[in-house]
Amino acid sequence: MKYTYYGQSCFLIEADGKKFLFDPFIKSNPLAKDVDTSKIEADYILVSHGHGDHVADLVELAKQTDAQVIAVVEVAKWIKEQGVEKVTDINFGTQTMPFGKLRTVWAVHSSSNPDGSYGGNPAGFVLGLEGKQIYFAGDTALTSEMKLLAELHHLDYAILPIGGHYTMDVDDAVIAAKYINCDQIIGVHYNTFPPISINEEDAIAKFKREDKTLLLPKIGETISL
Ligand code: NI
Ligand code: MN
C-alpha cells in the first residue's frame, strides 16, 4: 500500500489496485506548487467536509479522473450541482462499497460548501484496505467519540490533523492516538497557514514519548504503508 502526500489534508492511497484520493486541495496551496495535478489519477475521491481547504480542486479532479466521489449528503448535493455525475452520498454509519466496508464517523468541526450552502456534518472515515484498517479523521477536535474506534477496529494507521487552531493540535492528536489505540500516525493539516504552523521535530518527539510513530512525509513524497 502506498501513501502520497499532497499537502494540507490531501493525500492519495494506492491499495488493492485502486487509487483513493482524499480532500483535494492542491492548486490553491502554495506549499504544493510543485505537484502536477494533471498527472493525478483516482478511482475514488473521498471528501470529509465542504471547506475550501478540502474541496478546492475537487470538481476539476473529479472530472479529470472520472473517479467516484464519496461525500456526506449535503456536500454530495453541492458536488452534483457542479456537474460531477459520479457521486455517492453517505452519512454516519457503515457503507458497503465496491472496495469493501467503509465506516463514516463523527468529526467535531463544522462544514459549509464553497457557495455558502449547508454542508451537513463533517466526517472522518475508516477503510479496510489490503487487510489493514486506516482511519482518516478529517478536520476534528479531540473527542471521546474516538474511543469507540478502538472497540470497533484494530487501526493500523491513523491520518490525523495536528496543526491546531481549526483542529487537534499535536498534544491532542497524541491523546487521540491513545484513544484509538493506534501506533502509526500520519500527520496532516499543518503548516499550510500561519495559525497551524508546527515544529515537526517537537511533534515527532511528543509521539515518540508515548511509543507512537508520527510520520510526516514531505509534500509530493510517497511512502509505503
Ligand atoms: Ni475544515
Ligand atoms: Mn481544514
Instruction: Give the C-alpha Rg.
Output: 16 Å
Provide the spatial order of strands within the biggest beta sheet: 6-5-4-3-2-1-14
CATH superfamily annotation: Ribonuclease Z/Hydroxyacylglutathione hydrolase-like
- The residue-averaged pLDDT reads 98
Helicity range? 10-25%
Helix-strand string:
EEEEHHEHEEEEEHEHEHEE
CATH hierarchy: architecture = 4-Layer Sandwich
Shape: globular
Instruction: List the total number of helices.
Output: 6
Separation of termini? 5 Å
Q: What is the name of the CATH class?
A: Alpha Beta
What's the total count of β strands? 14
| Percentage beta strand | 25-35%
> Bound compounds, please?
nickel (II) ion, manganese (II) ion
Query: Structural class of the helices, strands and pairings?
Result: alpha/beta
Unreliable parts: none
- Tally of individual domains: 1
Which fold does the CATH topology refer to?
A: Metallo-beta-lactamase, Chain A
Structure description:
This protein has helices spanning 52-55, 58-65, 73-81, 147-152, 170-179, 200-208, and strands at 2-5, 11-15, 18-22, 44-46, 68-72, 87-90, 93-97, 100-106, 123-129, 132-136, 157-161, 184-188, 213-215, 222-224. The chain has 225 residues and is α/β, with parallel strands linked by helices. The N and C termini lie close together (5 Å). The structure holds nickel (II) ion and manganese (II) ion (MN). Manganese (II) ion binds at residues 51, 53-54, 139, 166, 189. Residues 51, 53-54, 139, 166, 189 line the site of manganese (II) ion.
